[in-house]
Amino acid sequence: MTQTDRSHFGWANRAMGGVAFLKGDITWSPVHRERSQTSGSLSEGSGKRKQQGVPRMKQQGPEPQTSDDKEPCTKRVKPVAKTLSASGLSSAKVTPLKRLSQSIQRSISFKTEPRPPGYVPPPRAGGCRRRSSKLWSETFDRVSEELSAREVKRQEVIFELMQGEQQLVADLNLVKKNYYEPMLTLAILPEAELREIFGTLDSLAPLHEDLLGRLLGLRQEDGTVPELGPTLLDWLPGLRAYESYCCHQVWAKARLDSRKREPAVGEFLRLCQESAFSRKLELWSFLDLPRSRLVKYPLLLREVLRQTPPDHPDQAPLQRAVALAQDLVGLINRKTGEAECRYYQQRLSYPDGAPRHPGIDRSSLLLCHGDLRNSKGQRLHVFLFQEALALTRPVLQGEQVVFQLQGPPLPIGQLEVQDLPDGGARLGGALRERGRSCLRVSGGAQAHTLQAVDAFDKQQWLSCLRQALAARPPPELDGSLGPLAALRLDCDPPMDHT
What we know:
By secondary structure, the chain is an alpha+beta fold. It has helices at residues 6-16, 67-70, 98-106, 136-139, 149-185, 191-198, 204-218, 229-235, 241-247, 249-259, 263-274, 283-287, 289-294, 297-306, 315-347, 358-362, 455-471, and strands at residues 82-84, 92-94, 348-349, 366-373, 379-385, 388-397, 400-405, 410-411, 416-419, 425-427, 433-435, 438-443, 446-451. Helices cover 40% and strands 13% of the residues.
């Protein structure tokens, strides 16, 4: 990744030429907790398209009113879509059938008044590239009629797996060509910091190119893939390369957020986001694509297995492939969680003279963290470690964000959680407004009323807190012999001699 060709240098100069970087005060906003989302390719809405004016013959009197003029069409065409059901997750629309939708959209028109001669429509502002999302049955029109509906579904999932690999390879090459190389050539950031931000991303493209080539080699003339399991069993161990990339992401995200505040870096990223190649996505969205792709493998392979008949020769290899993918993804998730926990342990700022909390240092996982407001309306960043709950305020020290503790952390062994109904807590200092989406945490002499962003965020916090309480070890039994002194030798009930 250290070499760049002259064409990228010319592109970068044209993109950055004539740009006056804005100077201003550096502002900072607290880090918000990002929700995980399930990804799926949704169908495009049926947009309205206007036809060019058609010359009309001159008529005497006003033109008769047509039915289209009397009642404008407000109906929305609903495209036909297939749904990939993944166990453990809610179903989401994926890879829609667009052929029927597009044919209907082409038949819809809206009458307009004739435009004057020489009329030129105004250019669209910043169009973005859209990817095609065809189905396997749309790509290969000559599908054998002998295939069962279940086999067609199986081929659709395999085709989606293949399309996902192709799109990921294209995005990884896009990041290298349009972000890494121009930023290195223009000296927007030094090479050491670019390697810290992009990590081992360059090593992932050959891995997915290998799988894509294998899948294309398995495809027959009619577009079907007979067996998939043996190929996956041979390729899946290569996913261990994701361990170093995913574990480094928390440091990479912090470095990128810090550098984006610089005028040169911020202006370059803004120009890239406004360009068509970026599809209006930020740089971090591209850097996070491999991780989001990784967690899809167990879901896709499980769906292929579900559509594979029990007597199919691919049944047993697919079962082993699904188990291997789940184990690898679980291992990488655990390692990534441990790396994230270490990162925030190092970013905690204790008051002067205060010792480090042993429960936080012993924790190997960060169960949850995000923004909550206290009873005075102040925004706090709360960390739920395995053994302690810490309330902090993020501040900028130099070039990095640190989190100052607001009081001693609450040990999980002493923590109590209460779900407050809406209106059951008064917030806001002097105004004392009745709060919504509030909860109370207490432990020892401390008690804090915290307000979440909304009801969904509150339920997420309550779920994480209750899981932490359920996982805490039971209290140690008292080893003293004091209770034995209360025992009596004649504690047996009197016997009935009758």
